[in-house]
Amino acid sequence: MNPSLLLTERLKLVLPSVEEARASVESLSPAEREHVSPEWLEQFLNAKESDPWIHGFAIVHREDSTEIGQCGFKGPPDEDGVVEIAYMVHPDQQGQGYATEAALALVQFAFSNDEVCIVRAHTLPEINASMRVLTKCGFQSVGMVNDPEDGTVERWETLRESL
Q: What is the distance between the alpha carbons of residues 62 and 104, in angstroms, rounded to a whole number?
C-alpha cells in the first residue's frame, strides 16, 4: 500500500509534503493551535519527510479533486500497538458517508502495519455523528476516559482480529 495515497471508492486520501504540512500548521490561528498536542507538534516539526502517522491526509473527492476534509493519526503506533485516528469533513460535505469511507481507509492502512493491534478513536460523550461513523466502521465503545487534551471523551476501539 502506497502510504502517500490511499484510495477508496469515491475518495483519495493524499499525504502532504513536509512543506505543505508545515504551511498548514503555520496557518492555524492561536485558538486552533491551543488544541494541538505539544507532543504531536514536536514530532511534526522534527519530521524530515512526509509521515502518514504524523502529517495526516487531505480527503479529496476522486471525481472532481475537491478537498472535502482532513484525516489522519495522532502519532505512530505506541508500544502496545495502538494508534488513534481523527477525521473532519467540511460541513457542506457532511452526511454523504465520506467520514466513514475515510475512517475505514485509515483502519485498513493501520492494520497493514504488523505493529498495529488496536485502532482507537475518541468522541465527545454526547450522541453525535462520529459515533455513527465509528459504529459503521466496526468500532466498539469501551467507555469514558479522561483525555489530557480533550477532557472526558468516549473511547472507541477496533481490534485487528475483528476484521
A: 16
Other CB atoms within a 10 A radius of the CB of residue 28 amount to 12
Q: Which three cell numbers stand for residue 150?
A: 480533550
As a whole number of angstroms, the distance between CA 27 and CA 15 comes to 18
Domain 5-162 has CATH 3.40.630.30: yes
User: Amino acid letter at 134?
Assistant: L
Note the pLDDT of residue 95.
95
Q: What is the mean pLDDT of the chain?
A: 90
**H or E segment and range at residue 136:** helix 129-136
Q: How far is CA 28 from the centre of its chain?
A: 18
pLDDT band at 162 (very low <50, low <70, confident <90, very high): low
Q: Is the predicted pLDDT of residue 3 greater than 80, yes or no?
A: no
